Amino acid sequence: MRHSPGRARRFTRALPLTPAVVLILLFLAGPIAYCVYIAFTDLQLTGQAHSSFVGFANFRRAFRDSEFINAVWLTLVFTVLSSLVGQNTLGLALAALMKRASKPVRTITGAVVVTAWVLPEVVAGFLLYAFFRREGTLNAVLDWLHLPRQNWLFTLPVLAVSFANVWRGTAFSMLVYSAALDEIPAEITEAAEVDGAGGWRRMWHVTLPMIRRSIATNLMLNTLQTLSVFGLIWVMTRGGPGNKSQTLPLFMYEQAFQNSMIGYGTAVALLLLLVGSLFSVVYLRLLRTEV
Amino acid sequence: MPRKHTSRRLAADLALLAVTAAFALPLAWVVLSAVDPHAGLRVRIPDGLTWANFHAVLTPDITYTPLLNSLILCGGATALTVVCAALAAYPLSRFRSRLNRPFLLAILFATSLPITAVMVPVYALFVRVDLIDTMQGTILFFAASQLPFAIWLMKNFMDGVPKELEEAAWTDGASSPQSLVRIVLPLMGPGLAVVTVFSFVMMWGNFFVPFMLLLTPDEMPASVSINDFFGNRGMVAYGQLAAFSVIYSTPVILLYVLVARRLGGGFALGGAVKG
User: Fold this and answer.
1) Shortest CB distance from B29 goes to which of A137, A167, A231?
2) Which of A19, A157, A180, B1 is geometrically suited to a Cys-Cys bond with B84, CB 3.0 to 4.6 A?
3) Interface touch B120/A265, C-beta < 8 Å
4) DSSP-based three-state secondary structure for B50
5) From residue A227, how far is each of A38, A82, A162 by CA, in Å?
């Protein structure tokens, strides 16, 4: 309808983008670029006037550092346990059950699970710290059931923080899957039922294939979210005991600030960003038809 | 058939209630301990009811100053985010341009980057440009980190406002800024509320950003000052910690309920997880 706009007009039209673009460039893209730069230097926090370029030394060092390898391994365990298995599966199960449950139960479940999600990160951390402590609620429940108790935060800290992350993050998957299940036309489920497909078979052959894109995007977002969890673990265990629950973000923090090696800490951050970008790109491809 | 349905519903109800009970235990701890005169680490029915825990924490030092700091940080950053996102979303939603698609893809890409990883270089950068330990620096970073998602959400909501209404205003001689403020934004009120509340809630609960960028104890928001219940004050008063947690969490829960009621459960997911 309208003629193609002239150069001046195009400029005026793009003008409202400026504040956002300036902010993002200065405070988000800037630090990422700076990150790429200092990851290749030996920048330290104190006692050093100049930093110098050290090439890939920080990265070589990381891959020889047993503590780094430990952090990578723990991050992997934490992500697989809490996001892939925990949040994703539990979220789907809750969403599927909610479709069948009575209204009051549905409302209560929704309210409780979503509250855990909305709570500030640190508060969630404290609640679960109290839950898993030796004198805490979990052991009280285990006593009551005549099951052996444990000092969870000491013996199995990764498991404890993974459960904490499931507690806190499942609501997101639940909401995503509830929305996805609502979009499946009733006729399809009914048809499968008439054909004699039982509950599990219907789930496997009809429901899951129909929501596979939701599953993929949800997995991506859960994983990205879990990769950057800091406060929850920090509050519950500080990455300890020793470094038994020290995932990459906590390792990065320790190297940069407790050991004053900003260069090395940033190299770790850069690796984390690279993994994140990789997931991000996959996520974009999954969404590609929508932009 | 009806009987089968009833038993199936019962099974679903029971399963959900079991999971809900497990989810509720940690929440029950914070609520019960806040009014328990002898609160410990374990969920239990208080043997008496007391407001002493709330009285003890409702002081300028422990509660009012940190909450005010949170309000300044998150309020300032949210205002900045919403204004910038609304402005940015307008050309993206209304005018066709070759740059729209790459821009939106870049925004979506940034949305899913792990911001935690950026905090060490942000710290190093802020030390250099002298923004470390300043409220304004923290507000600016908060806004920048929230902007990609805010722009994305805002653009999706804006797409829902029909263009015809605006074209009528244009023929009447209104300029684009006028039609944005007078027509588009009022029509997308609920969307605007979602972006505002979502940004605010995200920042209110964020621990790592102020933990890294602020150093002065007097400037700490509640997300960081809550740590003082451990460490500095010796013995942990669990009742007080619980009372503070309740005070600190209530605003975001209320805000969430306010918006979720109006827009249905998965509001925050907006366009980002359509699949």
Assistant:
1) A137
2) A19
3) yes
4) coil
5) 22, 11, 12
Q: What phi, psi does A41 have (nearest 5°)?
A: -120, 175
Q: Which of residues 34-73 of B touch A (CB under 8 A)?
A: 40-43
Between CA B177 and CA A13 the distance in angstroms is: 10
Query: What's B84-96 look like in SS3?
Result: HHHHHHHHHHHCC
φ, ψ of residue A102 in degrees (nearest 5): -75, 160
Please say whether the beta carbons of B66 and B211 come within 8 A.
no
The pLDDT assigned to B26 comes to 93
**Residue B39 burial class via C-beta count within 10 angstroms: exposed 0-12, middle 13-18, buried 19 and up:** buried
Nearest to B114 among A112, A123, A276 (CB): A276
Chain B residues within an 8 Å CB radius of A32: 113, 118, 121
Burial label, B106 (beta-carbon count in 10 A; 0-12, 13-18, 19+): middle
Place of tokens 């855990």: A116
**Which amino acid makes up residue A259?**
N
Contacts of B222 in chain A (CB under 8 A): 120
pLDDT in tens, chain A (291 residues): 445 557 777 778 888 999 999 999 999 999 999 899 888 988 877 655 577 888 888 898 889 999 999 999 999 999 999 999 999 999 999 999 998 899 999 999 999 999 999 999 999 999 999 999 888 889 888 888 988 888 888 888 999 999 999 999 999 999 999 988 988 888 887 888 787 777 778 888 888 888 888 898 899 889 999 999 999 999 999 988 888 999 999 999 999 988 888 889 999 999 999 999 998 888 888 876 555
Residue A41 forms beta bridges with which residues?
A: A53
Instruction: Let me know: does B268 contact A173? Beta carbons within 8 Å.
Output: no
Cis peptide before B60 (omega within 30 of 0): no
Q: Do B87 and A249 touch (CB under 8 A)?
A: no
Residues B73 and B203: beta-carbon distance below 8 Å: yes
Q: What is residue A268's three-state secondary structure? A: helix
Token match 């109800």: residue? Answer: B13
Question: A146: left (phi > 0), else alpha (psi -120 to 50), else beta?
Answer: left
pLDDT tens profile B129-188? 899 999 999 999 999 999 999 999 999 889 988 888 888 888 888 888 888 888 899 988
- Asked if residue B56 lies in contact with residue B240, where contact means CB atoms within 8 angstroms, the answer is yes
Establish, for the pair of chains A and B, how many residue pairs have beta carbons separated by less than 8 Å.
Answer: 292
CB B33 within 8 A of CB B39: yes
CA distance B101 to B174: 27
Type of residue found at A81: L
